[in-house]
From TrEMBL:
Repeat region (WD), residues: 170-211, 212-243, 310-339
Lineage: Eukaryota, Viridiplantae, Streptophyta, Embryophyta, Tracheophyta
Pfam families: WD40 (PF00400)
PROSITE patterns: WD_REPEATS_1, WD_REPEATS_2, WD_REPEATS_REGION
SMART domains membership: WD40
Source taxon at top rank: Eukaryota
Protein keywords: Repeat, WD repeat
Record-given protein name: Protein JINGUBANG-like
The gene coding this protein: LOC111479229
Species for this entry: Cucurbita maxima
Sequence intervals crossing the membrane: none
Length: 451
């Protein structure tokens, strides 16, 4: 019944693409070729399912297994669990598919505007909408179809609460809710907004328990360290901030400001791992100038120290996600880059393993997780402003051909000297839209300069 909403996009299978002249050197190892899987039986779905990987001996890292095009609006948010993929769009509808073969299992419709942000935790799904409010859904399966149940709306009405200054203020945000994060231990939902504030919600009581001005510009992303409850926020004001909840209270205090360069910060991701030698805690931040900064937590002082830059994207980094020791970044240059962090002596190095190409517009949001088949594969979901949504299967094989610890930087450069990076191909509609935005920006600045 809903096939008219989607148009298919052809198969895309890519060989590994190694970047040239990146400040963080890419891994020169090509992963070994895995045998092609037998073709699966067709499933009832509006997806354009791709065929199995080619059986030639050319090594490859990723394969597009399904692709969708949404002609009636952009996809604005993605949430992913072990079972489902949720996709929110400008239409206000949340589509859902089951992982692995991606059969459609239904949708959630809320008549409250676009779905700007989502977060999934177990059977709970949080979604922000165009009315500056959040819906909480309980998601179950029944008869192979999704059976969503709306638990609550935050705030339930234009209610008031007593703020930090003792005055009564509105619980509701006054502008677009751009990001969501959930503290599972304390059952607190955090919302970040273009009104520069962050709000904490007690979901069991359906009320706002804290609201604070977090930045001077739009709040673009929020992540939470589930181990200690620290809240990380980033903004167009070029800063990343770390907040800690006051013990025994609902209020939050600012503990640290991370500011390395004068460029808007669009995305955040945390990577928490315990290696054989020591635990590691990294924070990654994506900037409008195309850089990714990473910060390492000091175990003795719990401070975050700047560790370096990951360079490779041509334009703004719009989204970040981590899976184990991998970092995935989506950019305005239409590419998705996969980076690997490796321990080296007393420190860590990052390598660009692959560049996933297939979108024709900026990659706005990402989600990723390991497949459940125990074959070491990762599923990556990506949505672009070209109105497409794709699911990629990424092959994760250990590189057995060379011991990089015995090579210096010059040797690595020699190994990858012949590699080239394709120029990004942007859709004509996006280029025209971007040109108009720049024209408006310069006209506005020129007019302001006359005063």
């Amino acid at each position: 019944m809903e096939s008219h909403l989607w148009t298919s996009i052809g198969e895309q299978t890519k060989s590994i693409d190694l970047p040239q002249n990146d400040a963080v050197l890419p891994d020169p190892i090509l992963f070994p070729t895995s045998p092609a899987r037998p073709s699966s039986a067709p499933v009832p779905t509006p997806w354009a399912m791709s065929s199995p990987p080619r059986t030639n001996q050319q090594p490859f890292v990723y394969h597009c297994i399904a692709s969708l095009h949404r002609p009636d609006g952009n996809i604005l948010s993605i949430a992913m669990t072990k079972e489902f993929i949720y996709v929110g769009s400008e239409s206000g509808r949340i589509q859902s598919w089951k992982l692995q073969e991606c059969p459609g299992v239904g949708f959630i419709k809320a008549s409250s505007g676009q779905v700007g942000a989502m977060f999934a935790c177990g059977r709970m799904l949080f979604s922000s909408h165009g009315d500056y409010r959040v819906r909480i859904w309980e998601v179950k399966m029944g008869n192979k179809r999704l059976k969503p149940k709306k638990i609550s709306t935050l705030p339930p009405k234009r209610s008031l609460f007593v703020g930090r200054n003792g005055r009564r203020q509105l619980q509701q945000h006054s502008d677009h809710i751009s990001c969501l994060a959930y503290n599972d231990a304390d059952k607190l939902l955090y919302t970040g907004s273009w009104d520069s504030t962050v709000k904490a919600w007690n979901i069991s009581e359906n009320r706002c328990v804290d609201s604070f001005v977090a930045h001077e510009g739009h709040v673009n992303a929020i992540v939470i360290n589930q181990e200690d409850g620290c809240v990380f926020t980033c903004s167009s004001d070029t800063s990343v901030k770390i907040w800690r909840r006051v013990y025994g209270e609902s209020s939050h205090i600012l503990t640290m400001i991370l500011k390395f360069q004068l460029s808007p910060v669009n995305a955040l991701a945390l990577s928490l791992l315990s290696s054989s030698s020591k635990p590691c805690n990294f924070l990654y931040s994506g900037y409008s100038d195309g850089h990714i900064n990473f910060w390492e937590k000091e175990s003795s002082s719990s401070r975050y120290n700047h560790g370096g830059l990951l360079q490779g994207h041509h334009f703004a980094v719009l989204c970040l996600v981590t899976v184990k020791d991998l970092i995935l970044s989506g950019s305005e240059d239409t590419a998705i880059r996969i980076w690997r962090r490796e321990e080296r002596g007393n420190g860590y190095l990052h390598w660009c393993l692959s560049v996933i190409e297939g979108h024709h517009g900026p990659v706005r949001c990402l989600a990723a997780g390991m497949e459940m088949d125990n074959m070491g594969n990762m599923l990556v979901c990506s949505a672009s402003l070209d109105q497409s949504f794709k699911v990629w299967r990424v092959k994760l094989f250990p590189p057995p051909l060379m011991n990089r610890s015995e090579m210096n930087v010059e040797q690595l450069k020699k190994e990858i000297g012949g590699c080239e990076m394709n120029n990004p191909v942007l859709s004509p509609s996006w280029v025209e839209k971007r040109k108009l935005q720049f024209d408006d920006y310069y006209v506005s600045n020129n007019n302001n300069n006359h005063f």
